[in-house]
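Action item from last meeting closed. Structure (216 res):
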């Protein structure tokens, strides 16, 4: 599952290359630790990570040109609770893109190309497993996660992604499930607070179900 671009040494303490994080501590994307995941750091990074490779524009406010992974994640969690009636999966929906706090949001045509996917998928899997362990998430993610993600993506595409009227994207098809939310395109700071508030709500709700996180 290790990326072919990184081969660990025989030394047991070697965790591979590291990166800086918002709290000044190192993150090891090739060897993530569940115990080291700091949700405020996650929120900070996701709030600064743009979706759609930055090809976004609010239709009313020209100054709003960035749409964050943090805001997307909150909308997915809302859709999971309000429209799929699965509050038990709210935390999974909120954190389904959380590994992108290490990798950023790679645009789909690049990420899904076989040569890139073969490298990125193991890195994402390691991060997903770390988050699943840290927050006791259902993993592999159940299909409802992809449904919520797709519905929010459709809302984003229709509202904030400039495209031609005859764009053949399946996100414009009438039968495509589309989340009924207005995409606000919050500032990075607002998106961070939005995510952290949603995390607190999801954690409190999680206590009512059979698999609450082992640690808070």
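Sequence:
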């Amino acid at each position: 599952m290790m990326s072919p671009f990184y081969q660990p040494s025989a030394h047991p303490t070697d965790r591979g290359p590291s990166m800086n994080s918002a709290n000044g501590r190192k993150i090891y994307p090739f060897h993530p630790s569940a115990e080291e995941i700091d949700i405020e750091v996650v929120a900070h990074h996701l709030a600064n990570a743009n979706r759609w490779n930055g090809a976004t524009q609010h239709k009313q406010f020209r100054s709003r040109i960035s749409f964050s992974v943090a805001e997307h994640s909150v909308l997915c969690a809302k859709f999971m609770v309000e429209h799929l009636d699965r509050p038990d999966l709210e935390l999974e929906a909120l954190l389904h893109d959380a590994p992108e706090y290490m990798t950023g949001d790679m645009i789909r045509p690049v990420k899904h190309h076989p040569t890139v996917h073969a490298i990125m998928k193991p890195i994402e899997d390691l991060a997903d497993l770390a988050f699943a362990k840290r927050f006791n998430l259902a993993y592999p993610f159940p299909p409802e996660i992809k449904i919520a993600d797709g519905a929010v993506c459709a809302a984003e595409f229709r509202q904030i992604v400039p495209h031609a009227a005859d764009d053949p994207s399946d996100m414009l098809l009438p039968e495509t499930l589309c989340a009924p939310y207005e995409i606000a395109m919050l500032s990075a700071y607002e998106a961070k607070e939005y995510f952290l508030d949603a995390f607190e709500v999801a954690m409190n709700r999680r206590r009512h179900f059979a698999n609450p996180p082992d640690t808070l």
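Note appended to the action item: The CA atoms of residues 166 and 172 lie 9 Å apart.
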